[in-house]
Amino acid sequence: MNTKIGRFLLALVGFAALLLFPIGIDNPYYIHLLETIMIYAILLFGLDIVVGYTGQVSLGHAGLFGLGAYTAGVLVYKLGAPLMVALIASIGVTALFGALLALPALRVTGPYLAMVTLAFGTIIQILINEMSFITEGPMGIKLTKPPLFGHKLDEREFYWLVVVMLVLSLVVVHRILRSHLGRAFEALRGSPVASDCMGVSVYRYKVYAFVISAGFAGLAGSLYAYSEQYISPNTYNFELTVLFLLAVIMGGRKSRIGAMLGATIIVLLPKLLDDVELFRYVSVALAVLVMVVAVVGVQMKRVTPKQMAIPVVGSIALAGLSFWLQTMTDWRLSIFGVIMLFVVYYLQDGIVGFVRNALNLRRPKARLEVEGAGIAPADAVATAAMAGGQPEVLQASGVLMQFGGLKALNNVDLTVRRGTIHGLIGPNGSGKSTMMNVLTGIYVPTAGAISFGGRSLVGRTSSDIALSGIARTFQNVQLFGEMTAQQNVQVGLHHTFRSNLFDVAVHTPRYKRESAAAANRALGLLKFVGLEAFAAEEARNLPYGKQRLLEIARALALDPQLLLLDEPAAGLTAPDIKELIAIIRKIREHGVTVILIEHHMDVVMSMCDTVSVLDFGQKIAEGEPAAVQADAKVIEAYLGGQEAEPQPA
Ligand SMILES: Nc1ncnc2c1ncn2[C@@H]1O[C@H](COP(=O)(O)OP(=O)(O)OP(=O)(O)O)[C@@H](O)[C@H]1O
User: Fold this and answer.
1) Region of poorest pLDDT, from 347-351, 579-583, 606-610
2) Cα(410)–Cα(241) distance, integer angstroms
3) Which residues span the domain enclosing 604?
4) H or E segment at 142?
5) Is 377 in the pocket of ligand 1 (CB under 6 A)?
6) Does 201 share its domain with 107?
7) pLDDT digits over 551-603, tens only?
8) Whose C-alpha lies nearest to ligand 1, atom 24?
9) Cα–Cα distance for residue pair 223/469, rounded to 1 Å
10) How many domains does the chain have?
11) For position 366, what pLDDT does the model report?
């Protein structure tokens, strides 16, 4: 609580300092510089959603920024639109184009996405240039500072308007990212497959992320148009888009302070690079600083001389270069490139991440979400209702899954009775995981029918299937590593939210209620699997056995009818396995049906009601554990493969 008040006071001081700046420093140049930094920061808040949270690349944001600037510019120039109309229209139009930009992100990732988004930005720039009947082409558009409520804003008043917009954007983006929407974005980065299987549609949330991000770019663009009082197409070029990306990475992704720091750097950096004298001073100072850090670091044995060699040589080379160069203009992009390389190599978490690591500070989000921490329910697992009413929860018949010539599943029938634990065993490569993937919509079967609760599963998306009541864990743990244990479970509780963007931005009573309930329920589910002590720990830092339990808690958050556990005991110690068995039994007591894939025969034999055995994609036996264990075909299958004969319970 104290840190919360502390941070609030710090924010208040920052806000007051920003407001007072133009009174203290009555120099229009510096006021304009700070105004530009704030406008860029608004854009970077949005870009960070896409880059930092969902983990996508966008080189199209300079284009979106230009689109926002031109929407405002054209509306004012051609129609004399008032300020608020121009701002809202810019946000709307840009958000629409954000959806367009999201389309390629649904199909490609990494360098391909970078190329497509770059093309998008370039096309927007070309269109602005060519459509001179609207945009006045290369001539650009001149604007004046806008009137607000009948009063024409002067330089200083417009600056204050930008301060207010910055603070509003900061609050809104912060709330979005702390909400179920932000968790959905972050989950996409952590594991798209797991997101989908938690009912968080990767498609939908990628589009949302781009749309919201673009909205901020639009707002920033329109403010920029008024701020500069002149817009022309060549501002929104490749250099600017690279600078935006550099700012997010250098400042530190997933951090609002990082965005503001990044904005400051990219506004000041070109100024620095315009003035060769200043650049010489700064590069010499940097070289000295790097050398001092290297010497101290090596003496304190925190780094090796080898690790520091490149930064030291690099910074000395930069200082040398600064004296050799007469003018910087031609070198700007190369220097940005070198900085980008440096950041990617040495500052992967950006400046904010570096400082946090150095000072051993935890990310604010790594703390426990306290809204609901008071009274974790002892038993947060929902009791599965008898949906459909049939005694069979799942019926699969004639399932064929073919990968090229390989039939990973060959004409498999599977009937799972409600409220039972159904074991699925077989040697390595026999098709068990493939069956899980078919049941959860990750693979569409080549042939066959699968019905769950009376509805067919074939052809439905993973998130749709998850929401209809099938939850799963993964053979190779698929947690959202950078999120805390509690947040991982909260992603599973995404389906409990009805709040929309407005609820999140304004913190309506509905959102507060849902958010507190989810935080509380997540703690309850963690308690159910014995992980409440790890609630605030990032998932990637948990021991392997705990990670498997966390996956179960997250899956239970979906309130499933059917829970698919893919080798939950793999890698667990004997006491952990005992705990796991108790947990699975408790899950069954809640009426949840379990399909259990497991190589530990003692686990399978001690708890399963029915066991099905797969071999080379075919079901070779089915029945009660003891009967299956004695089956000659099963023994043959296991002895024929690499595995040992199933051990008696
Ligand atoms: N996407 C895919 N493309 C091609 N082949 C695949 C694919 N997924 C699975 N297979 C193949 O299907 C077969 C069955 O694999 P699956 O992972 O389902 O086996 P499993 O019984 O779960 O084995 P394990 O116990 O090792 O996890 C294997 O031969 C595997 O190589």
Assistant:
1) 347-351
2) 51
3) 392-640
4) strand 141-142
5) no
6) yes
7) 999 999 999 999 999 999 988 888 889 889 999 999 999 989 999 999 888 88
8) 428
9) 46
10) 3
11) 47
